[in-house]
Amino acid sequence: MASQLEAMVRQDIINGRLAPGTRLRLKELADFYGAGVIPLREALSRLAATGFVSSADQKGFSVGLISAVELRDITNTRLHIECKALSESIQRGDVDWESRIIAAHHRLDRLQIVEGPDRLLAPDWELAHDAFHSALISSCGSPWLLRFTHTLRDQTARYRMLSMHYTKSMHRDVPGEHRALLEAALAKDIDRACEILSAHYETTAQSLLQHESLNSKG
Asked: Where does the HTH gntR-type domain start and stop, copy by copy (predicted)?
């Protein structure tokens, strides 16, 4: 039950239903999710370990804060690590790896990015998006690179809601960016693949940095 609650709260943070800094009152949340307080507390403790939630001894839980400084740091670090993982994966990738990235991209390309009148980030798309990027680096041969990449990707998810839920300007071809990345990877063009990946993440970061909630926090 705690794992299910963790996933539900995490998704509500990503989609912006639970805004950064919001106080998380256990009884209210338990009623909303139809769950017990004990498994909910465990779920929030897990989310606190990843930065989605902050915890204070006397103040309880609240949604983790976001900042421009942290976003820049996460993005720069992610680019260094994930480009390294992508380079190694392309070099080592075999036919099975090619099959994985083609299949992952096919699913991603068939899904809508946002859903509903509020244009919330679609959970199925988010899962497929993570699966595609995970498949791209899956042949890097380094469990530590994979672990670090997963951690940084998880942190980036806390900011993605600003792009998909709040940002008014959506004049970018995200599916096209993913197709270009797939083509470069299959062509074994490491420089081109890393260039596309970097631009993909930088564009997202620059879009997020325009949001007023980050401008007000430096």
From this structure: 1-66
Q: Are the CB atoms for 2 and 39 separated by under 8 Å?
A: yes
Q: Are residues 17 and 72 in the same domain?
A: no
115/11 same-domain check: no
- Structurally, the chain folds into a number of domains equal to 2
CATH of the domain at 18: 1.10.10.10
Name the token pair of 15: 């989609």
Task: Please give the structure tokens belonging to residue 185.
Answer: 């990877």
- CA quadruple 127, 131, 134, 135: dihedral, nearest 10: 180
Number of H helices, E strands in the chain: 10, 5
Cα gap 30→41, rounded to integer Å = 9
Q: Which residue has the tokens 């899956």?
A: 138
pTM of the predicted model, to two decimals?
0.78
Cα-to-chain-centroid distance, residue 57: 28
